[in-house]
């Protein structure tokens, strides 16, 4: 990572120039940025400075390019990186970017793996690494069970902070991996697995730097001296928070969250189902119990191979390099003692409450022939943890990184591409989706690793395509496979809730009701709020007027 | 209500001209509107055509002016009314309004009583009466427990529809009065009292006509052929729904909602507390149980006089015309067998579950000295219903109008002005708020009628100022009192979640953090989305460029 001092020695042709920006302008911009944040906190990037493939991993994240690149490694390469230390610095950086027309790509921590990591959509953008220095827990209220965070607070850090500062009574909700940003994940509308799993629903209040450098607080934060910024979401008048998610209308520098008080008891559980064909019955039951408030969180219905991958690579199970077939998967399921589908859930509350819930939950799922259930046991010394024991932690908000195993299914230091369509939480749709993906995965030569999650009412289907990025033809197959699937899904009325940089334009065009009214609306807001088009151009398929239709769309 | 046919016979000076619109232009606009919707569905209004005070009431709502006017009766007078029959007609109307610069004030049903009814903020606007003809339940899914509604569907109508069409398993959530619009209430971010009481949180998907006439669908509705419009709120990319609430950026023509499946059991309860000074202890306990998920809904903590007003006017209890004092209130509490504070709540779920909840709830509140509790009994024949019996219906989503009694506390056909600050859900803040309001109410000569409601985490304090609108000096006192209270509240960091037309500008200025950043942002969106400034100018203090700073602010 060349520090800014080397800038003068880098030839013009080597710089990664964003559109409309000359080498001179980029140099000047980077030098000015260094004046704002200090030269330690600015980097310049070139093709040569990209982190080598054998060095980059979850804990050594390249911030200039996508760790799990699918197109070329430098397709989404940043020209530089700047790490602000305060909201005031962010505002100054934004003003400077407007002056030089240098696009900024804000990330909180940048572990958006499967969707592009920390790489910018537009080549040559400068990564605004908010989390590097702005990483404080600003406030915790034990009375209101809320917190106020800077972008750099990870799930690990928040959990630690609560444990160490007398807030053991407050639980957090983390996604599968604990190294992400609480703020960043919520802004991309990610999810976890406790009753507080729908992260955007559970946020309360934002501080936002607008694309012109103005600073705004939303909700009750816009009332001076307010005492309810983290307790009441809306404030007065139009409620804007949603337009700062999956968007490029503002940079969130502070964000409030609700925390779950210790529910007074907890019990995780696992149901295993023997048959591939059990999926519809499982989903039907989860929907009914979930909407009926018997299941309090979003349990996951995982296929055999996802659990298998958590334990170890494919080579631990088979010498086959082809997509595994039914009988092979059955064998693995037997070996690792999970189902063809496994339901990991939990109950929250005092024992007598849970006993009542359990009666219904057990009776419901045990109706499915061949179903078995199990509770997590403490990990015995020297024993390998089971997936149930891992989920037991995740489902009570203990951040971890157990699921990193998925990445390495087919190759060491492997890569993952996420495909995440939404469908009705019906057995019919779950199965249709599953078959749709299976078919394409067979066609393109990938193992299906996936999980179905019932949110408030909808079904999230999370498909993990694992691939070897060092193999160009495998990257290409991965790319074409997901491209085809997005179209397959749209044809059936399914749309992804989030996608990789590669597919942002394709997906934005799929959400085309009323002659593309939604994208037009987004573009109109973009042009009004960001007239110079400097903030995260192309995020979610929204391009600013200056760059629209100039061939940057993919 | 003069139909449009009379237009020609009304002299120019009598027309209620909006700014920048000549009498000729208004006439032309009204005539053109009649071509779009049919002449039956357009009205012209003048001072003379305002519904007489002795005719207007909840079921005979004036739509051209505020039923509970505080300034002059014609201050917020509309120039006309138009009732579209379809989204397509709404779109045409909007295009026409742009052509003639005639402002439109959309209402769903217009029963926004306490906050301005159906009257427009800007005199001379045309009321867009969406609900009159667009009042269908478009879809109900028993699988997903959702519905899709047009603006004219009232709580009564939705409940009826579900009962009559085989959806008895689906509960609705209604506010105190059942005659409002499910869509309109949610767009003003109103609330009810079941676990689904926070109406905007429970909405899913919108169809919106933008101020230029474009039609857009939000969330999954922007995916053609989508099957999850009413189940998944966000869709892909920036999530805009919040900016269409309490705003003037769009006209919502369809809106989806989540419905609660029959929870399998229900029990309402009442705790009465003897002392005025018990309020802090009650609020502290409600907060803990509410955030702790033991109390599943938003119970209300009502003062004696609110309950008294539900039963009958002040004159039923006393000959005093002054604000009642402690001992007088004690007497009334004893007479009608409620507390100085009464907590109305409910439990949802099968009996064994409720028994467990009840143990905790009972133990908690019975700790407060003098507390008593009671369950609702069936109404005996010929007996007057108790407030508990009324709340028993409201808390299980049976729409009703029992609380209309509040209006007539001090005068028959009385009026109500709402004051609704948000504070932390702490005993300290509840009491501070209560004392703040009591003091001003004593000063200005009003009885305090109020209720405290713990939402997800915050405290809604709903104060009902009842007054006699036929008495100009009483109107003036009411006006000054609330004006003073908004400032009192803001000085302590409390802000209202919603307000009457009169105070929209005052409140927007109170939410002034960062040099008025929030209002500036709202104005910027307004100017981008509504360049001619025709949609609901002044709603929530947001004026379009064309009308800003020209003296329309109050
Ligand atoms: C094995 C595996 C399992 C995973 N499991 C889950 C899971 O269970 N749930 C889940 O949700 N995801 C999951 N992911 C995806 C991803 O790792 C997480 O969502 C992660 O939390 C996102 O990275 P981050 O938190 O560092 O956010 P960031 O990368 O910092 O942010 C994400 C995006 O949000 C925007 N953004 C971030 N911060 C700001 C800001 N301050 N202002 C404006 N815009 C901003 C940017 O566009 C950014 O690219 C998984 C990924 C892998 C590889
Ligand atoms: C005694 C009494 C008790 C009350 N109790 C409650 C209570 O418990 N909870 C509560 O929330 N309120 C309460 N209210 C206030 C009010 O009566 C209700 O909120 C009522 O539901 C609002 O009227 P409405 O539903 O007809 O909405 P409307 O009047 O139709 O809409 C409200 C506002 O939203 C906007 N709007 C409406 N429709 C659209 C649209 N389609 N597109 C764009 N903008 C639109 C407009 O600005 C409109 O003025 C009470 C009032 C009284 C007098």
Structural class of chain A: alpha+beta
Weakly predicted, low-confidence segments of chain A: none
Global Rg of chain A:
23 Å
Largest contact between protein chains? Answer: A-B, 96 and 96 residues
Major sheet of chain A: size, sense and barrel closure? 9 strands, antiparallel
Figure out the total of helices of chain A.
13
Instruction: Name the bound molecules.
Output: flavin-adenine dinucleotide
* Number of E-state strands of chain A: 20
Identify the quaternary structure here: homodimer
Structure explained in plain terms:
Two copies of one chain form a homodimer. Chain A is of the alpha+beta class. Helices cover 29% and strands 17% of the residues of chain A. Chain A has 13 helices and 20 strands. In chain A, the strands form four sheets. In chain A, strands 12, 13, 14, 15, 16, 17, 18, 19 and 20 form a nine-stranded antiparallel β-sheet that branches. In chain A, strands 5-6-10-8-9 form a five-stranded antiparallel β-sheet. The interface between A and B is large, with 96 and 96 residues. The structure holds flavin-adenine dinucleotide (2 copies).
Secondary structure topology:
Two copies of one chain form a homodimer.
Chain A: H1 23-37, E1 42-44, E2 80-82, H2 87-100, E3 104-107, E4 126-129, E5 137-141, E6 146-149, H3 155-164, E7 170-171, H4 182-187, E8 203-209, E9 215-217, E10 251-258, E11 260-261, E12 266-273, H5 279-291, E13 300-303, H6 304-311, H7 326-336, E14 341-348, H8 351-365, E15 372-375, H9 387-394, E16 415-419, E17 421-424, H10 427-444, E18 450-454, E19 458-467, H11 472-491, E20 495-496, H12 504-510, H13 513-529
Parallel strand pairs in A: 2-4, 3-4
Antiparallel strand pairs in A: 1-2, 5-6, 6-10, 7-11, 8-9, 8-10, 12-14, 12-15, 13-14, 13-18, 16-19, 17-19, 17-20, 18-19
Helix pairs in contact in A: 1-2, 5-10, 6-7, 10-11
Bound molecules: flavin-adenine dinucleotide (2 copies).
The site of one flavin-adenine dinucleotide (FAD) has 31 residues of chain B, from β3, α4 and β10.
């Amino acid at each position: 990572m060349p520090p800014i001092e080397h800038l003068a020695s880098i030839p013009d042709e080597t710089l990664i120039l964003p559109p409309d920006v000359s080498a001179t302008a980029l140099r000047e911009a980077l030098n000015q940025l260094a004046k704002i944040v200090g030269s330690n906190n600015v980097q310049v990037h070139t093709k040569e400075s990209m982190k080598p493939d054998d060095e980059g991993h979850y804990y050594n994240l390249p911030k200039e390019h996508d760790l799990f690149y699918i197109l070329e490694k430098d397709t989404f390469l940043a020209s530089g990186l700047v790490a602000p230390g305060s909201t005031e610095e962010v505002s100054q950086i934004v003003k400077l970017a407007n002056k030089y027309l240098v696009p900024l790509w804000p990330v909180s921590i940048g572990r958006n793996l499967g969707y592009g990591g920390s790489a910018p959509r537009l080549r040559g953008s400068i990564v605004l690494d908010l989390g590097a220095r702005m990483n404080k827990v600003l406030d915790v209220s034990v009375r209101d069970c809320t917190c106020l965070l800077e972008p750099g607070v990870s799930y690990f850090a928040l959990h630690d902070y609560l444990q160490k500062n007398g807030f053991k009574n407050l639980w957090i909700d983390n996604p599968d991996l604990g190294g992400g940003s609480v703020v960043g994940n919520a802004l991309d509308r990610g999810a976890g697995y406790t009753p507080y799993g729908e992260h955007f629903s559970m946020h309360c209040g934002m501080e936002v730097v607008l694309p012109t450098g103005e600073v705004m607080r939303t909700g009750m934060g816009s009332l001076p001296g307010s005492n309810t910024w983290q307790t009441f979401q809306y404030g007065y008048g139009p409620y804007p928070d949603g337009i700062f998610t999956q968007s490029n209308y503002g940079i969130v520098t502070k964000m409030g969250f609700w925390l779950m008080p210790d529910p007074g008891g907890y019990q995780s559980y696992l149901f295993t189902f023997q048959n591939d064909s059990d999926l519809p019955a499982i989903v039907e039951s989860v929907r009914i119990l979930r909407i009926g408030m018997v299941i309090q969180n979003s349990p996951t219905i995982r296929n055999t191979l996802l659990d298998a991958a958590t334990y170890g690579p494919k080579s631990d199970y088979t010498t086959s390099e082809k997509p595994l077939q039914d009988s092979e998967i059955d064998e693995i399921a037997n070996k690792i003692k999970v189902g063809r589908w496994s339901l990991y859930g939990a109950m929250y509350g005092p024992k007598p409450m849970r006993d009542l819930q359990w009666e219904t939950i057990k009776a419901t799922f045990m109706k499915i022939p061949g179903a078995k259930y199990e509770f997590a046991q403490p990990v015995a010394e020297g024993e390998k943890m089971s997936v149930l024991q891992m989920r037991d932690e995740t489902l009570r908000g203990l951040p971890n990184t157990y699921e990193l195993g998925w990445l390495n299914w087919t190759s060491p230091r492997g890569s993952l591409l996420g495909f995440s369509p939404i469908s009705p939480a019906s057995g019919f749709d779950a199965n249709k989706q599953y078959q749709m993906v299976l078919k394409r995965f067979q066609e393109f030569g990938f193992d299906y690793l996936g999980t179905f999650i019932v949110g408030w009412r909808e079904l999230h289907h999370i498909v993990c395509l694992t691939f070897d990025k060092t193999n160009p033809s495998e990257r290409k197959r991965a790319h074409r496979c997901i491209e085809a699937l997005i179209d397959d899904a749209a044809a059936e009325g399914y749309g992804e809730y989030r996608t990789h940089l590669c597919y942002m334009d394709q997906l934005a065009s799929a959400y085309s009701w009323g002659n593309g009214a939604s994208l037009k609306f987004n573009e109109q807001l973009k042009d009004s709020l960001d007239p110079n088009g400097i903030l995260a151009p192309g995020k979610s398929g929204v391009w600013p007027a200056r760059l629209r239709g100039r061939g940057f769309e993919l």
